[in-house]
Protein backbone atom coordinates (compact mmCIF):
# COMPACT_ATOMS: atom_id res chain seq x y z
CA UNK A 1 0.00 0.00 0.00
CA UNK A 2 1.16 3.52 -0.73
CA UNK A 3 0.35 6.93 0.74
CA UNK A 4 -2.61 7.46 -1.61
CA UNK A 5 -4.20 4.24 -0.35
CA UNK A 6 -3.97 5.40 3.25
CA UNK A 7 -5.38 8.81 2.35
CA UNK A 8 -8.30 7.13 0.55
CA UNK A 9 -9.18 4.98 3.57
CA UNK A 10 -8.84 7.94 5.98
CA UNK A 11 -11.02 10.17 3.78
CA UNK A 12 -13.61 7.41 3.55
CA UNK A 13 -13.93 7.06 7.32
CA UNK A 14 -14.11 10.84 7.78
CA UNK A 15 -16.87 11.25 5.18
CA UNK A 16 -18.91 8.42 6.72
CA UNK A 17 -18.45 9.02 10.44
CA UNK A 18 -18.08 12.81 10.80
CA UNK A 19 -21.63 13.74 9.66
CA UNK A 20 -23.30 10.67 11.23
CA UNK A 21 -24.32 12.24 14.60
CA UNK A 22 -25.77 15.33 12.92
CA UNK A 23 -27.57 13.33 10.24
CA UNK A 24 -28.91 10.92 12.87
CA UNK A 25 -30.55 13.75 14.78
CA UNK A 26 -31.88 15.23 11.56
CA UNK A 27 -33.45 11.91 10.48
CA UNK A 28 -35.02 11.41 13.91
CA UNK A 29 -36.67 14.82 13.77
CA UNK A 30 -37.76 14.31 10.15
CA UNK A 31 -39.31 10.88 10.77
CA UNK A 32 -41.20 12.16 13.82
CA UNK A 33 -42.57 15.17 11.94
CA UNK A 34 -40.57 17.75 13.87
CA UNK A 35 -39.25 20.88 12.21
CA UNK A 36 -35.99 20.55 10.26
CA UNK A 37 -34.08 22.82 7.91
CA UNK A 38 -35.92 21.21 4.97
CA UNK A 39 -39.42 21.52 6.46
CA UNK A 40 -40.28 24.78 4.61
CA UNK A 41 -39.44 23.06 1.31
CA UNK A 42 -40.97 19.60 1.77
CA UNK A 43 -43.83 20.07 4.25
CA UNK A 44 -46.19 21.44 1.54
CA UNK A 45 -45.26 18.53 -0.73
CA UNK A 46 -45.77 16.08 2.14
CA UNK A 47 -49.23 17.48 2.88
CA UNK A 48 -50.15 17.32 -0.80
CA UNK A 49 -49.17 13.65 -0.92
CA UNK A 50 -51.40 12.87 2.06
CA UNK A 51 -54.38 14.72 0.60
CA UNK A 52 -53.96 13.07 -2.82
CA UNK A 53 -53.82 9.59 -1.25
CA UNK A 54 -56.50 10.22 1.38
CA UNK A 55 -54.13 9.56 4.31
CA UNK A 56 -54.70 10.85 7.82
CA UNK A 57 -51.17 11.41 9.07
CA UNK A 58 -52.29 11.49 12.72
CA UNK A 59 -53.92 8.05 12.56
CA UNK A 60 -51.47 5.35 13.59
CA UNK A 61 -51.63 1.64 12.77
CA UNK A 62 -51.11 -1.62 14.62
CA UNK A 63 -51.05 -4.92 12.68
CA UNK A 64 -52.38 -3.07 9.63
CA UNK A 65 -48.90 -1.55 9.31
CA UNK A 66 -47.71 -4.92 8.00
CA UNK A 67 -50.65 -5.14 5.59
CA UNK A 68 -49.85 -1.72 4.16
CA UNK A 69 -46.21 -2.71 3.70
CA UNK A 70 -47.11 -5.95 1.93
CA UNK A 71 -49.69 -4.14 -0.20
CA UNK A 72 -47.16 -1.58 -1.42
CA UNK A 73 -44.67 -4.36 -2.14
CA UNK A 74 -47.18 -6.35 -4.19
CA UNK A 75 -48.27 -3.29 -6.17
CA UNK A 76 -44.62 -2.35 -6.81
CA UNK A 77 -43.79 -5.89 -7.89
CA UNK A 78 -46.65 -6.18 -10.38
CA UNK A 79 -46.10 -2.68 -11.74
CA UNK A 80 -42.40 -3.25 -12.32
CA UNK A 81 -42.94 -6.65 -13.98
CA UNK A 82 -45.41 -5.05 -16.37
CA UNK A 83 -43.04 -2.16 -17.11
CA UNK A 84 -40.13 -4.47 -17.92
CA UNK A 85 -42.14 -6.85 -20.07
CA UNK A 86 -43.89 -4.05 -22.01
CA UNK A 87 -40.97 -1.64 -22.37
CA UNK A 88 -40.94 -2.15 -26.13
CA UNK A 89 -44.33 -0.37 -26.31
CA UNK A 90 -43.47 2.34 -23.77
CA UNK A 91 -41.87 5.78 -24.38
CA UNK A 92 -38.26 6.88 -23.72
CA UNK A 93 -36.83 3.91 -25.59
CA UNK A 94 -34.55 5.44 -28.25
CA UNK A 95 -32.76 2.14 -28.85
CA UNK A 96 -36.11 0.35 -29.43
CA UNK A 97 -35.22 -2.38 -26.94
CA UNK A 98 -37.79 -5.21 -26.61
CA UNK A 99 -39.42 -6.24 -23.35
CA UNK A 100 -37.82 -8.79 -21.04
CA UNK A 101 -38.90 -12.43 -20.86
CA UNK A 102 -41.08 -13.14 -17.82
CA UNK A 103 -38.50 -15.11 -15.72
CA UNK A 104 -35.97 -12.28 -16.07
CA UNK A 105 -38.64 -9.62 -15.52
CA UNK A 106 -39.82 -11.41 -12.37
CA UNK A 107 -36.27 -11.81 -11.07
CA UNK A 108 -35.45 -8.15 -11.73
CA UNK A 109 -38.70 -6.89 -10.19
CA UNK A 110 -38.24 -8.97 -7.04
CA UNK A 111 -34.63 -7.82 -6.92
CA UNK A 112 -35.42 -4.11 -6.91
CA UNK A 113 -38.52 -4.34 -4.73
CA UNK A 114 -36.53 -6.19 -2.04
CA UNK A 115 -33.61 -3.70 -2.15
CA UNK A 116 -31.34 -6.43 -3.57
CA UNK A 117 -30.72 -5.09 -7.09
CA UNK A 118 -29.38 -8.41 -8.32
CA UNK A 119 -28.73 -7.94 -12.04
CA UNK A 120 -29.14 -10.86 -14.40
CA UNK A 121 -29.29 -8.34 -17.25
CA UNK A 122 -27.07 -5.63 -18.75
CA UNK A 123 -28.66 -2.21 -18.30
CA UNK A 124 -27.41 -0.43 -21.42
CA UNK A 125 -28.17 -3.45 -23.63
CA UNK A 126 -31.59 -4.53 -22.31
CA UNK A 127 -33.37 -1.69 -20.51
CA UNK A 128 -34.87 1.50 -21.89
CA UNK A 129 -34.59 4.90 -20.24
CA UNK A 130 -38.23 4.54 -19.14
CA UNK A 131 -37.52 1.21 -17.43
CA UNK A 132 -34.41 2.58 -15.77
CA UNK A 133 -36.00 5.80 -14.49
CA UNK A 134 -39.66 5.10 -13.77
CA UNK A 135 -39.23 1.39 -13.19
CA UNK A 136 -35.98 0.74 -11.35
CA UNK A 137 -35.38 4.31 -10.20
CA UNK A 138 -38.69 4.54 -8.32
CA UNK A 139 -37.97 1.28 -6.53
CA UNK A 140 -34.52 2.58 -5.62
CA UNK A 141 -36.36 5.15 -3.49
CA UNK A 142 -39.22 2.99 -2.22
CA UNK A 143 -37.29 -0.12 -1.12
CA UNK A 144 -34.85 1.68 1.24
CA UNK A 145 -37.73 3.85 2.46
CA UNK A 146 -39.58 0.68 3.50
CA UNK A 147 -36.46 -0.55 5.34
CA UNK A 148 -36.17 2.76 7.16
CA UNK A 149 -39.86 2.65 8.09
CA UNK A 150 -39.48 -0.83 9.63
CA UNK A 151 -36.48 0.35 11.65
CA UNK A 152 -38.42 3.35 12.93
CA UNK A 153 -41.22 1.02 14.09
CA UNK A 154 -38.76 -1.06 16.11
CA UNK A 155 -37.20 2.09 17.59
CA UNK A 156 -40.59 3.38 18.69
CA UNK A 157 -41.51 0.00 20.16
CA UNK A 158 -38.41 -0.05 22.37
CA UNK A 159 -39.29 3.33 23.88
CA UNK A 160 -43.09 3.40 24.03
CA UNK A 161 -45.03 1.98 26.96
CA UNK A 162 -48.25 -0.05 26.69
CA UNK A 163 -48.77 1.12 23.11
CA UNK A 164 -51.05 -0.59 20.62
CA UNK A 165 -49.91 1.44 17.61
CA UNK A 166 -46.45 1.83 16.10
CA UNK A 167 -46.93 4.57 13.53
CA UNK A 168 -48.43 5.09 10.08
CA UNK A 169 -46.69 3.21 7.28
CA UNK A 170 -47.63 5.68 4.54
CA UNK A 171 -46.42 8.63 6.61
CA UNK A 172 -43.15 6.90 7.48
CA UNK A 173 -42.40 5.97 3.85
CA UNK A 174 -43.29 9.45 2.59
CA UNK A 175 -41.01 11.13 5.10
CA UNK A 176 -38.20 8.66 4.43
CA UNK A 177 -38.28 9.55 0.73
CA UNK A 178 -38.83 13.30 1.00
CA UNK A 179 -36.51 14.12 3.87
CA UNK A 180 -34.05 11.23 3.91
CA UNK A 181 -33.36 10.02 0.38
CA UNK A 182 -34.40 12.70 -2.11
CA UNK A 183 -32.37 15.75 -1.00
CA UNK A 184 -29.09 13.86 -0.56
CA UNK A 185 -29.60 12.07 -3.88
CA UNK A 186 -29.99 15.40 -5.68
CA UNK A 187 -26.76 16.70 -4.12
CA UNK A 188 -24.82 13.53 -4.96
CA UNK A 189 -26.20 13.42 -8.52
CA UNK A 190 -25.01 16.99 -9.15
CA UNK A 191 -21.56 16.12 -7.79
CA UNK A 192 -21.39 13.08 -10.07
CA UNK A 193 -22.42 15.14 -13.12
CA UNK A 194 -19.62 17.55 -12.17
CA UNK A 195 -17.21 14.59 -12.26
CA UNK A 196 -18.38 13.51 -15.72
CA UNK A 197 -21.19 10.99 -15.15
CA UNK A 198 -23.79 11.25 -17.99
CA UNK A 199 -27.28 12.59 -17.34
CA UNK A 200 -29.04 12.65 -20.68
CA UNK A 201 -32.05 11.40 -22.63
CA UNK A 202 -30.20 11.50 -25.95
CA UNK A 203 -29.73 8.48 -28.24
CA UNK A 204 -26.63 6.36 -27.95
CA UNK A 205 -23.70 7.87 -29.86
CA UNK A 206 -22.40 5.96 -32.89
CA UNK A 207 -18.67 6.47 -33.48
CA UNK A 208 -15.91 5.10 -35.70
CA UNK A 209 -12.95 3.68 -33.80
CA UNK A 210 -9.27 4.20 -34.65
CA UNK A 211 -9.28 0.76 -36.27
CA UNK A 212 -12.17 1.79 -38.52
CA UNK A 213 -14.88 -0.21 -36.78
CA UNK A 214 -18.21 1.11 -35.52
CA UNK A 215 -19.01 1.38 -31.82
CA UNK A 216 -22.14 2.42 -29.94
CA UNK A 217 -21.43 4.63 -26.89
CA UNK A 218 -24.29 4.28 -24.38
CA UNK A 219 -25.62 7.35 -22.61
CA UNK A 220 -28.69 7.94 -20.46
CA UNK A 221 -29.90 9.42 -17.17
CA UNK A 222 -27.12 7.68 -15.23
CA UNK A 223 -26.08 10.18 -12.53
CA UNK A 224 -29.52 10.36 -10.91
CA UNK A 225 -29.83 6.58 -10.67
CA UNK A 226 -26.26 6.09 -9.46
CA UNK A 227 -26.83 8.62 -6.67
CA UNK A 228 -29.86 6.83 -5.24
CA UNK A 229 -28.40 3.37 -5.88
CA UNK A 230 -25.54 4.26 -3.52
CA UNK A 231 -27.37 6.35 -0.92
CA UNK A 232 -30.27 3.87 -0.79
CA UNK A 233 -27.85 0.92 -0.54
CA UNK A 234 -29.48 -0.49 -3.67
CA UNK A 235 -26.50 -1.20 -5.90
CA UNK A 236 -28.09 -1.80 -9.30
CA UNK A 237 -25.83 -0.27 -11.94
CA UNK A 238 -27.11 1.81 -14.85
CA UNK A 239 -24.49 0.01 -16.96
CA UNK A 240 -23.85 -3.72 -16.92
CA UNK A 241 -20.45 -3.66 -15.22
CA UNK A 242 -21.73 -1.25 -12.57
CA UNK A 243 -19.27 1.18 -10.98
CA UNK A 244 -16.37 -0.41 -12.85
CA UNK A 245 -17.75 1.39 -15.93
CA UNK A 246 -15.95 4.71 -16.61
CA UNK A 247 -19.29 6.47 -17.18
CA UNK A 248 -20.58 5.42 -13.76
CA UNK A 249 -17.32 6.04 -11.93
CA UNK A 250 -15.05 8.25 -14.04
CA UNK A 251 -12.58 9.71 -11.49
CA UNK A 252 -10.92 9.16 -8.14
CA UNK A 253 -13.26 11.77 -6.65
CA UNK A 254 -16.38 10.03 -7.97
CA UNK A 255 -15.03 6.76 -6.54
CA UNK A 256 -14.58 8.32 -3.09
CA UNK A 257 -17.99 10.02 -3.17
CA UNK A 258 -19.78 6.85 -4.25
CA UNK A 259 -18.12 4.44 -1.82
CA UNK A 260 -18.61 6.84 1.12
CA UNK A 261 -22.25 7.49 0.23
CA UNK A 262 -23.00 3.76 0.52
CA UNK A 263 -22.52 3.90 4.31
CA UNK A 264 -23.55 7.52 4.89
CA UNK A 265 -27.19 6.89 5.85
CA UNK A 266 -26.65 3.50 7.57
CA UNK A 267 -24.09 5.15 9.88
CA UNK A 268 -26.45 8.06 10.56
CA UNK A 269 -29.32 5.70 11.44
CA UNK A 270 -27.28 4.30 14.33
CA UNK A 271 -27.43 7.73 15.97
CA UNK A 272 -31.08 8.14 14.99
CA UNK A 273 -31.75 5.01 17.07
CA UNK A 274 -30.04 6.63 20.06
CA UNK A 275 -32.34 9.65 19.81
CA UNK A 276 -35.41 7.41 19.66
CA UNK A 277 -34.49 5.50 22.83
CA UNK A 278 -33.10 8.64 24.53
CA UNK A 279 -29.71 7.00 25.09
CA UNK A 280 -26.86 7.74 22.68
CA UNK A 281 -24.65 5.30 24.60
CA UNK A 282 -26.56 2.52 22.82
CA UNK A 283 -25.65 4.09 19.49
CA UNK A 284 -21.98 4.26 20.36
CA UNK A 285 -21.95 0.61 21.49
CA UNK A 286 -23.56 -0.60 18.26
CA UNK A 287 -21.27 1.60 16.17
CA UNK A 288 -18.23 0.19 17.99
CA UNK A 289 -19.31 -3.38 17.23
CA UNK A 290 -19.90 -2.55 13.57
CA UNK A 291 -16.53 -0.84 13.27
CA UNK A 292 -14.75 -3.85 14.80
CA UNK A 293 -16.38 -6.21 12.30
CA UNK A 294 -15.85 -3.82 9.40
CA UNK A 295 -12.18 -3.27 10.26
CA UNK A 296 -11.55 -7.01 10.53
CA UNK A 297 -13.06 -7.55 7.09
CA UNK A 298 -11.26 -4.61 5.49
CA UNK A 299 -7.92 -5.59 7.01
CA UNK A 300 -8.27 -9.19 5.80
CA UNK A 301 -9.22 -8.06 2.30
CA UNK A 302 -6.37 -5.55 2.02
CA UNK A 303 -3.85 -8.10 3.28
CA UNK A 304 -5.08 -10.87 0.98
CA UNK A 305 -5.25 -8.72 -2.14
CA UNK A 306 -1.74 -7.32 -1.69
CA UNK A 307 -0.13 -10.75 -1.54
CA UNK A 308 1.76 -11.94 -4.61
CA UNK A 309 0.29 -14.98 -6.32
CA UNK A 310 2.31 -18.07 -5.23
CA UNK A 311 2.01 -19.41 -8.77
CA UNK A 312 4.41 -16.66 -9.92
CA UNK A 313 7.14 -17.48 -7.39
CA UNK A 314 10.48 -17.73 -9.20
CA UNK A 315 9.34 -15.62 -12.16
CA UNK A 316 11.37 -12.45 -12.61
CA UNK A 317 8.35 -10.17 -12.41
CA UNK A 318 7.75 -7.69 -9.62
CA UNK A 319 4.21 -8.20 -8.32
CA UNK A 320 2.70 -6.42 -5.32
CA UNK A 321 -0.65 -8.11 -5.70
CA UNK A 322 -2.95 -9.69 -8.28
CA UNK A 323 -4.33 -7.02 -10.59
CA UNK A 324 -6.73 -9.21 -12.57
CA UNK A 325 -10.26 -7.86 -12.29
CA UNK A 326 -9.24 -4.89 -10.14
CA UNK A 327 -9.91 -1.22 -10.76
CA UNK A 328 -6.47 -0.56 -12.27
CA UNK A 329 -7.05 3.22 -12.48
CA UNK A 330 -7.37 3.49 -8.70
CA UNK A 331 -5.37 0.55 -7.35
CA UNK A 332 -5.88 -2.60 -5.33
CA UNK A 333 -6.76 -0.80 -2.08
CA UNK A 334 -9.67 1.04 -3.73
CA UNK A 335 -11.06 -2.25 -5.03
CA UNK A 336 -10.68 -4.01 -1.67
CA UNK A 337 -12.29 -1.09 0.17
CA UNK A 338 -15.26 -1.03 -2.20
CA UNK A 339 -15.76 -4.80 -1.95
CA UNK A 340 -15.79 -4.63 1.85
CA UNK A 341 -18.12 -1.63 1.93
CA UNK A 342 -20.61 -2.92 -0.61
CA UNK A 343 -21.00 -6.24 1.20
CA UNK A 344 -21.04 -4.66 4.65
CA UNK A 345 -24.04 -2.74 3.34
CA UNK A 346 -26.75 -4.39 1.24
CA UNK A 347 -25.52 -2.43 -1.74
CA UNK A 348 -24.08 -4.84 -4.31
CA UNK A 349 -22.41 -2.26 -6.54
CA UNK A 350 -18.85 -3.08 -7.57
CA UNK A 351 -15.83 -1.29 -9.01
CA UNK A 352 -13.96 -4.60 -9.46
CA UNK A 353 -14.89 -8.21 -10.18
CA UNK A 354 -15.09 -10.24 -6.97
CA UNK A 355 -14.64 -13.43 -9.00
CA UNK A 356 -11.03 -12.35 -9.60
CA UNK A 357 -10.21 -11.68 -5.96
CA UNK A 358 -7.95 -14.01 -4.02
CA UNK A 359 -9.78 -16.77 -2.12
CA UNK A 360 -9.58 -14.91 1.21
CA UNK A 361 -10.34 -11.58 -0.46
CA UNK A 362 -13.46 -13.09 -2.02
CA UNK A 363 -14.45 -14.71 1.27
CA UNK A 364 -14.65 -11.34 3.07
CA UNK A 365 -17.65 -9.97 1.11
CA UNK A 366 -19.25 -13.42 1.22
CA UNK A 367 -18.94 -13.63 5.01
CA UNK A 368 -20.16 -10.04 5.44
CA UNK A 369 -23.34 -11.04 3.64
CA UNK A 370 -23.67 -14.33 5.54
CA UNK A 371 -23.86 -12.36 8.78
CA UNK A 372 -27.14 -10.96 7.47
CA UNK A 373 -25.94 -7.57 6.15
CA UNK A 374 -25.65 -6.12 9.67
CA UNK A 375 -22.20 -4.51 9.48
CA UNK A 376 -23.86 -1.13 8.81
CA UNK A 377 -26.10 -2.94 6.33
CA UNK A 378 -28.82 -1.47 4.16
CA UNK A 379 -30.83 1.66 4.94
CA UNK A 380 -32.92 0.55 7.93
CA UNK A 381 -32.45 -3.14 7.23
CA UNK A 382 -28.89 -3.27 8.53
CA UNK A 383 -29.68 -1.73 11.90
CA UNK A 384 -32.85 -3.71 12.58
CA UNK A 385 -30.85 -6.84 11.69
CA UNK A 386 -28.17 -5.77 14.17
CA UNK A 387 -30.84 -5.09 16.82
CA UNK A 388 -32.03 -8.68 16.40
CA UNK A 389 -28.50 -9.80 17.30
CA UNK A 390 -28.54 -7.36 20.22
CA UNK A 391 -31.70 -9.05 21.51
CA UNK A 392 -30.12 -12.49 21.02
CA UNK A 393 -27.07 -11.34 22.97
CA UNK A 394 -29.24 -9.96 25.77
CA UNK A 395 -31.12 -13.27 25.90
CA UNK A 396 -27.90 -15.29 26.14
CA UNK A 397 -26.52 -12.92 28.79
CA UNK A 398 -29.72 -13.36 30.78
CA UNK A 399 -29.28 -17.12 30.69
CA UNK A 400 -25.68 -16.81 31.88
CA UNK A 401 -26.47 -14.60 34.86
CA UNK A 402 -29.80 -16.24 35.69
CA UNK A 403 -32.05 -13.22 35.11
CA UNK A 404 -35.00 -12.55 32.86
CA UNK A 405 -33.45 -10.94 29.77
CA UNK A 406 -34.46 -7.36 29.03
CA UNK A 407 -33.31 -4.63 26.70
CA UNK A 408 -33.88 -0.97 27.48
CA UNK A 409 -36.40 -1.97 30.14
CA UNK A 410 -38.42 -4.28 27.86
CA UNK A 411 -38.48 -7.92 28.95
CA UNK A 412 -37.87 -10.61 26.35
CA UNK A 413 -40.27 -13.50 26.76
CA UNK A 414 -41.04 -16.72 24.91
CA UNK A 415 -42.84 -15.07 21.98
CA UNK A 416 -39.99 -12.69 21.19
CA UNK A 417 -37.40 -15.46 21.50
CA UNK A 418 -39.28 -17.70 19.07
CA UNK A 419 -39.41 -14.86 16.57
CA UNK A 420 -35.68 -14.25 17.03
CA UNK A 421 -34.94 -17.91 16.33
CA UNK A 422 -37.11 -17.77 13.20
CA UNK A 423 -35.12 -14.79 11.92
CA UNK A 424 -31.82 -16.62 12.55
CA UNK A 425 -32.94 -19.43 10.22
CA UNK A 426 -33.45 -17.15 7.22
CA UNK A 427 -29.84 -16.97 6.03
CA UNK A 428 -29.07 -20.71 6.47
CA UNK A 429 -32.21 -21.75 4.58
CA UNK A 430 -31.76 -19.24 1.77
CA UNK A 431 -28.04 -19.86 1.35
CA UNK A 432 -27.31 -23.46 2.28
CA UNK A 433 -30.55 -25.17 1.27
CA UNK A 434 -31.08 -23.35 -2.03
CA UNK A 435 -27.39 -23.52 -2.99
CA UNK A 436 -27.36 -27.25 -2.18
CA UNK A 437 -30.29 -27.75 -4.55
CA UNK A 438 -28.43 -25.80 -7.23
CA UNK A 439 -25.32 -27.96 -7.07
CA UNK A 440 -27.30 -31.21 -6.81
CA UNK A 441 -29.35 -30.78 -9.98
CA UNK A 442 -27.46 -31.35 -13.26
CA UNK A 443 -29.05 -28.48 -15.17
CA UNK A 444 -28.58 -25.70 -12.60
CA UNK A 445 -25.11 -26.98 -11.68
CA UNK A 446 -24.00 -26.32 -15.27
CA UNK A 447 -24.07 -22.57 -14.47
CA UNK A 448 -20.88 -23.05 -12.45
CA UNK A 449 -17.89 -22.20 -14.64
CA UNK A 450 -15.17 -23.61 -12.37
CA UNK A 451 -15.08 -27.31 -11.35
CA UNK A 452 -12.95 -26.81 -8.22
CA UNK A 453 -13.58 -25.11 -4.85
CA UNK A 454 -13.99 -21.81 -6.67
CA UNK A 455 -17.04 -23.24 -8.42
CA UNK A 456 -18.69 -23.88 -5.05
CA UNK A 457 -17.79 -20.34 -4.03
CA UNK A 458 -19.55 -19.03 -7.14
CA UNK A 459 -22.93 -20.57 -6.40
CA UNK A 460 -22.55 -20.05 -2.66
CA UNK A 461 -21.88 -16.36 -3.28
CA UNK A 462 -24.89 -16.05 -5.63
CA UNK A 463 -27.41 -17.40 -3.12
CA UNK A 464 -25.75 -15.55 -0.24
CA UNK A 465 -26.06 -12.33 -2.22
CA UNK A 466 -29.72 -13.03 -3.02
CA UNK A 467 -30.75 -14.02 0.50
CA UNK A 468 -28.72 -11.17 2.02
CA UNK A 469 -30.45 -8.72 -0.36
CA UNK A 470 -27.04 -7.56 -1.55
CA UNK A 471 -26.99 -8.08 -5.32
CA UNK A 472 -23.26 -8.41 -6.02
CA UNK A 473 -22.01 -11.56 -7.72
CA UNK A 474 -19.01 -13.66 -8.64
CA UNK A 475 -18.79 -12.83 -12.34
CA UNK A 476 -18.19 -16.41 -13.49
CA UNK A 477 -21.56 -17.77 -12.35
CA UNK A 478 -24.18 -18.11 -15.12
CA UNK A 479 -27.25 -16.95 -13.23
CA UNK A 480 -29.28 -16.03 -16.32
CA UNK A 481 -31.23 -19.30 -16.52
CA UNK A 482 -34.89 -19.84 -15.76
CA UNK A 483 -34.06 -22.01 -12.73
CA UNK A 484 -31.65 -19.59 -11.12
CA UNK A 485 -33.81 -16.57 -11.97
CA UNK A 486 -36.71 -18.13 -10.07
CA UNK A 487 -34.73 -19.61 -7.18
CA UNK A 488 -32.68 -16.48 -6.55
CA UNK A 489 -35.94 -14.51 -6.66
CA UNK A 490 -37.25 -16.86 -3.95
CA UNK A 491 -34.05 -16.30 -1.95
CA UNK A 492 -34.47 -12.52 -2.22
CA UNK A 493 -38.07 -12.64 -1.00
CA UNK A 494 -37.08 -14.91 1.87
CA UNK A 495 -34.19 -12.65 2.84
CA UNK A 496 -36.38 -9.54 2.79
CA UNK A 497 -39.60 -10.64 4.44
CA UNK A 498 -38.06 -13.38 6.56
CA UNK A 499 -36.59 -10.51 8.57
CA UNK A 500 -39.19 -7.76 8.12
CA UNK A 501 -42.18 -9.77 9.35
CA UNK A 502 -40.47 -11.06 12.55
CA UNK A 503 -39.15 -7.55 13.24
CA UNK A 504 -42.62 -6.05 12.93
CA UNK A 505 -44.06 -8.82 15.12
CA UNK A 506 -41.36 -8.27 17.77
CA UNK A 507 -41.97 -4.52 17.59
CA UNK A 508 -45.70 -4.96 18.14
CA UNK A 509 -45.07 -7.24 21.10
CA UNK A 510 -42.51 -4.94 22.72
CA UNK A 511 -44.59 -1.80 22.15
CA UNK A 512 -47.45 -3.31 24.17
CA UNK A 513 -45.21 -3.91 27.20
CA UNK A 514 -44.46 -1.59 30.05
CA UNK A 515 -40.96 -0.13 30.17
CA UNK A 516 -39.32 -0.88 33.48
CA UNK A 517 -36.85 1.73 34.76
CA UNK A 518 -33.19 0.78 34.52
CA UNK A 519 -31.29 0.49 37.79
CA UNK A 520 -27.93 -0.67 39.11
CA UNK A 521 -28.96 -4.33 38.72
CA UNK A 522 -29.84 -3.99 35.05
CA UNK A 523 -27.48 -5.64 32.56
CA UNK A 524 -25.56 -2.78 30.87
CA UNK A 525 -25.84 -2.77 27.10
CA UNK A 526 -23.52 0.10 26.30
CA UNK A 527 -20.07 -0.74 27.69
CA UNK A 528 -17.00 -2.58 26.35
CA UNK A 529 -18.18 -5.85 27.89
CA UNK A 530 -21.44 -5.79 25.93
CA UNK A 531 -19.67 -4.72 22.71
CA UNK A 532 -17.30 -7.68 23.07
CA UNK A 533 -20.14 -10.10 23.84
CA UNK A 534 -22.22 -8.84 20.91
CA UNK A 535 -19.28 -9.17 18.51
CA UNK A 536 -18.56 -12.73 19.66
CA UNK A 537 -22.22 -13.75 19.33
CA UNK A 538 -22.33 -12.43 15.76
CA UNK A 539 -19.11 -14.20 14.79
CA UNK A 540 -20.12 -17.47 16.47
CA UNK A 541 -23.56 -17.55 14.88
CA UNK A 542 -22.10 -16.79 11.45
CA UNK A 543 -19.10 -19.06 11.93
CA UNK A 544 -20.94 -22.09 13.26
CA UNK A 545 -23.56 -21.81 10.53
CA UNK A 546 -21.41 -21.24 7.47
CA UNK A 547 -17.89 -22.44 8.38
CA UNK A 548 -18.35 -25.91 6.76
CA UNK A 549 -19.44 -24.34 3.48
CA UNK A 550 -16.62 -21.78 3.60
CA UNK A 551 -14.13 -24.57 4.34
CA UNK A 552 -15.17 -26.39 1.14
CA UNK A 553 -15.14 -23.20 -0.94
CA UNK A 554 -12.81 -20.22 -0.39
CA UNK A 555 -10.73 -21.76 2.41
CA UNK A 556 -10.03 -24.92 0.38
CA UNK A 557 -9.16 -22.74 -2.63
CA UNK A 558 -6.79 -20.70 -0.45
CA UNK A 559 -4.83 -23.77 0.61
CA UNK A 560 -4.71 -24.99 -3.00
CA UNK A 561 -3.35 -21.57 -4.01
CA UNK A 562 -0.63 -21.79 -1.37
CA UNK A 563 0.65 -24.91 -3.14
CA UNK A 564 1.24 -22.82 -6.26
CA UNK A 565 -1.52 -24.37 -8.40
Can you give me a brief rundown of this structure?
The chain contains 20 helices and 4 strands. The protein is mainly α and 565 residues long.
Describe the structure.
With 565 residues, the protein is an all-alpha fold. It has 20 helices and four strands. It has helices at residues 3-17, 20-31, 39-53, 64-85, 102-113, 123-126, 129-159, 169-194, 222-231, 252-276, 280-305, 332-344, 359-370, 381-401, 414-424, 426-440, 442-445, 453-467, 482-511, 528-562, and strands at residues 205-208, 214-217, 406-407, 410-411. The strands form two sheets. Strands 1-2 form a two-stranded antiparallel sheet. α16 packs across α18 (453-467) and α18 (453-467) packs across α19 (482-511).
Write the layout of secondary structure elements.
Elements: H1 3-17, H2 20-31, H3 39-53, H4 64-85, H5 102-113, H6 123-126, H7 129-159, H8 169-194, E1 205-208, E2 214-217, H9 222-231, H10 252-276, H11 280-305, H12 332-344, H13 359-370, H14 381-401, E3 406-407, E4 410-411, H15 414-424, H16 426-440, H17 442-445, H18 453-467, H19 482-511, H20 528-562
Antiparallel strand pairs: 1-2, 3-4
Helix pairs in contact: 1-10, 2-10, 3-8, 4-5, 4-7, 5-19, 7-8, 7-9, 7-19, 8-9, 8-10, 9-10, 10-11, 10-12, 11-12, 11-13, 11-20, 12-13, 13-18, 13-20, 14-20, 15-19, 16-18, 16-19, 18-19, 18-20
The arrangement of helices and strands along the chain is HHHHHHHHEEHHHHHHEEHHHHHH
The CA-CA distance between the termini, in Å, is 26 Å
Q: List low-pLDDT spans.
A: none
Global outline: globular
SS content category: mainly alpha
- Provide mean pLDDT, rounded: 90
Radius of gyration: 23 Å
Strand content: under 5%
Share of helix among residues? 55-70%
Number of strands: 4
Number of helical runs? 20
Amino acid sequence: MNANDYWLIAAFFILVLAPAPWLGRYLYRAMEGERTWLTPVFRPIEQLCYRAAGIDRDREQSWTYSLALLGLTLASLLGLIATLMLQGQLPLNPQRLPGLEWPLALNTAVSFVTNTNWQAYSGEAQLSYFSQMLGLGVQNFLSPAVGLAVLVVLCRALFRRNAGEVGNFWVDVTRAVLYGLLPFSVILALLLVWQGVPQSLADYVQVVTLQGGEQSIPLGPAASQIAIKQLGTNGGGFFGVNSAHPFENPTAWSNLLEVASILLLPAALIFMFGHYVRDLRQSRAILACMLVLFTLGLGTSLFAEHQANPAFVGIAVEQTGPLEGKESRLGIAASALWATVTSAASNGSVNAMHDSFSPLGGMVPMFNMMLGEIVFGGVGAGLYGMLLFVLVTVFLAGLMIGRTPEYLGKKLEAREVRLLVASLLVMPVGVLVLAALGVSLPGPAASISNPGPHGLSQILYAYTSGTGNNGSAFAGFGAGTTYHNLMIALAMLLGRFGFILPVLAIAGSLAAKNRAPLDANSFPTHGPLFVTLLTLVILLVGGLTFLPALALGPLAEHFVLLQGF
